[in-house]
Please model this.
Amino acid sequence: MKTLFTGIQPTGELHMGNYFGAVKNWVMLQDSYKSYFSIVDYHAITIEYEPAEMQKKIFDLACGLIACGINPDTSRLFVQSEVPGHADLTWIFNSVTPIGELERMTQYKDKSQQHRKNINVGLLDYPVLQAADILIYKAEVVPVGEDQVQHIELTREVSRYFNRRYGDVFPEPDALLTKTPRIVGLDGSAKMSKSKGNSIALFESREEIWEKLRPAATDPARIKRTDPGTPEKCTLWSYHVLFSPEAEQKEIHEGCSTAGIGCIDCKKKLLENVMNEFDPLREKYYTLQSKPQEIRDKLDTNAQACRQAAAATIREVKEKMGLKPLWKI
Ligand code: AMP
Ligand code: TRP
Model:
């Protein structure tokens, strides 16, 4: 069985973009691979955050992923910083990665624009930690949304740099995208994202979701109710494609293009279908929230297994590098 690794930052609530771009796919794939799902807190600390809230965010994300269908008994769902090997391997990879490769990363450029007062080394080194996450388990498959493809390409390069210098240890992993690798934001901007405030979170109430859908911009050319619209120019249509049954999609497409239905009707239908998809997840999520000890135990057990797998790779790497491996952990 091949190994699959992917990570998600505990920086806010799970949203529709995470779900359709990534998490739903992870759930489908998890049993076909030896699967690792990491809550990457060491990545999250590269931007401003509130230390007092970190453990709650990690716990909420663990509950969210399990509610979506990640099985913590058969897949290794764990917290990154609880496996020190990731940071260890990052340092080793730092010494084979040219700085120029990191400086050209789109996410680094975006984030250093957004966080001008806190352009720390971690922000630049972020993709090297990501490479270490993946390669420490020798994962070959990395299911992610489109925004992460560049980082996976860098991972392949880091793997090559290391192997060329020290001998063959690491595979060259591939990114695996879904049919919907990029979900647009509610404001119509290129990407739905926690930090842009243009997202619909998975566990929001019906009222909260409606408060976001109701004012959302639609096809700008459809000004009056009687103007026919072009669904392909409407953000909400792109959501119908995700949530609505095919027969209903047809009706909506037809209705919008002929001015048969108005934008509010269309939004109401969307709301129903969003709730149909998310209601069962939200119910599971709140049940899990009442079992913090159970969740903690599962994360602990999984981190323990990951520490062992990671230590085996570190041992192999250090031997190749002429460093003395630790035989006892
Ligand atoms: P993050 O929340 O940034 O840690 O991302 C977790 C996963 O969700 C990654 O695989 C991302 O590529 C994916 N993802 C985040 N936002 C979107 C989006 N708007 N569309 C598609 N995938 C996304
Ligand atoms: N950088 C990824 C994101 O923001 C999260 C991540 C960290 C990751 N390590 C990873 C994704 C390893 C895939 C593999 O979405």
About this structure: The CA atoms of residues 111 and 123 lie 8 Å apart.
